[in-house]
């Protein structure tokens, strides 16, 4: 699909429609994933990482892969890293919709903390790879193999932590525990839920491909850098499912699913780089600019602040959200400013 011949308004309209499709499908994914979490017994945090994290990350993965295959490595990298900062900021946005208490207080869990630590570990791999000589084996950097292996090992640890936790957060009146409800009121069968899950995920995947094509056209029409378009526009558009599903999950009381959705989705953002490397000529990490590395480091800083908030568990801040949400939003604004400079 070559959209560069269209007007800027036409490309912007196509981009907006694809983003809307991603957001609408994400609303339904939240409810389906919550039902699957109950029926599988995996728990909301693990299900948020595996089910919703994977499905809502599909558009971003398709964008990074398709743009890398067309030689737009900077756009692929910017999309992945921009999604990281945007999605982390979305936790603070979801916090605004949870009126009972600070979201990080209500959703505190050992698996949520473990997910955040896993994200920091995974994100350190591409940062190290970008700073070292760009060695490839059959056109693929070794880091692109290490990232999914590390993620698989991390999921195994998350499952063990969920099934046999060695410590627990203090329970308060505002803490929302995970409650399994095998019999859902919608009466849908397991196969029906999986079919709906696949359908909504497919919609987001197709829309992600359109976002990639529209982003390439925006680069050509506006003259903006690939990294800037990927970080600010593609990254945010592809992260809309995380925002919508987190808000929807908070409104139905599945606060752990909301946190697991976003942090789990962030881990998939790192794997976008690994997947894109298989389609890029040479090493995708060699395309990371100083600005990209700053974005990645800010994402790590935002995750660290979020983890501190989950540990501190402030019930309510001066503006009804915790200190971590205020800092995370400020850091995201800072990351956008740095990209535009």
TrEMBL record:
Where do the Sodium/calcium exchanger membrane region domain residues begin and end? 12-129, 194-340
Membrane topology term: Multi-pass membrane protein
A Gene Ontology annotation in the biological process aspect, one of them, is: intracellular calcium ion homeostasis
Query: Which species is this UniProt entry from?
Result: Limimaricola cinnabarinus
Biased composition, class Basic and acidic residues, residue ranges: 173-189
Name the coiled-coil region(s).
none
What GO molecular function terms would the record report? calcium channel activity; calcium, potassium:sodium antiporter activity
Name of the protein in its database record: Cation transporter
- Where does the protein end up? Membrane
Tagged with keyword Heme: no
Q: What sections of the protein cross the membrane?
A: 6-30, 42-62, 74-98, 110-129, 135-158, 193-211, 294-311, 323-340
Q: Which GO terms describe its cellular component?
A: plasma membrane
Which Pfam families does the record match to this protein? Na_Ca_ex (PF01699)
* Region spans: Disordered: 170-189
Give the main location.
Answer: membrane
Annotated InterPro entries:
K/Na/Ca-exchanger, NaCa_Exmemb, NCX_ion-bd_dom_sf
- Which UniProt keywords are given for this protein, alphabetically ordered? Membrane, Transmembrane, Transmembrane helix
């Amino acid at each position: 699909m070559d959209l560069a011949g269209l007007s800027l308004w036409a490309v912007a309209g196509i981009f907006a429609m694809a983003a809307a499709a991603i957001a609408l499908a994400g609303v339904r994914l939240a409810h389906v994933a919550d039902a699957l979490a109950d029926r599988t017994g995996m728990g909301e945090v693990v299900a948020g990482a595996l089910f919703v994290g994977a499905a809502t990350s599909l558009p971003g993965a398709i964008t990074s892969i398709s743009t890398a295959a067309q030689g737009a490595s900077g756009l692929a990298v910017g999309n992945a890293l921009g999604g990281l900062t945007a999605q982390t900021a979305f936790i603070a946005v979801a916090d605004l919709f949870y009126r009972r208490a600070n979201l990080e207080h209500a959703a505190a869990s050992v698996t949520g903390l473990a997910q955040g630590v896993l994200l920091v570990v995974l994100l350190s791999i591409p940062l190290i790879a970008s700073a070292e000589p760009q060695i490839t084996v059959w056109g693929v950097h070794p880091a692109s193999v290490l990232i999914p292996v590390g993620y698989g090992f991390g999921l195994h640890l998350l499952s063990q932590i969920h099934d046999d936790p060695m410590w627990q957060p203090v329970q308060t009146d505002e803490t929302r525990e995970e409650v399994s409800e095998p019999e859902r009121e919608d009466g849908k069968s397991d196969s029906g839920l999986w079919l709906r899950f696949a359908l909504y995920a497919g919609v987001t995947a197709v829309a992600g491909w359109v976002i990639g094509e529209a982003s390439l056209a925006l680069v050509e029409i506006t003259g903006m850098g690939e990294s800037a378009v990927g970080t600010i526009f593609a990254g945010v558009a592809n992260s809309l499912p995380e925002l919508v599903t987190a808000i929807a999950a908070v409104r139905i009381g599945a606060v752990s699913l909301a946190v697991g959705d976003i942090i789990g989705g962030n881990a998939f953002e790192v794997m976008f780089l690994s997947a894109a490397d298989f389609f890029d000529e040479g090493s995708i990490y060699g395309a990371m600019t100083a600005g990209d590395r700053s974005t990645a480091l800010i994402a790590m800083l935002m995750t660290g602040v979020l983890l501190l908030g989950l540990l501190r568990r402030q019930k309510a801040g001066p503006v009804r959200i915790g200190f971590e949400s205020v800092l995370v939003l400020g850091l995201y604004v800072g990351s956008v400013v740095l990209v535009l400079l």
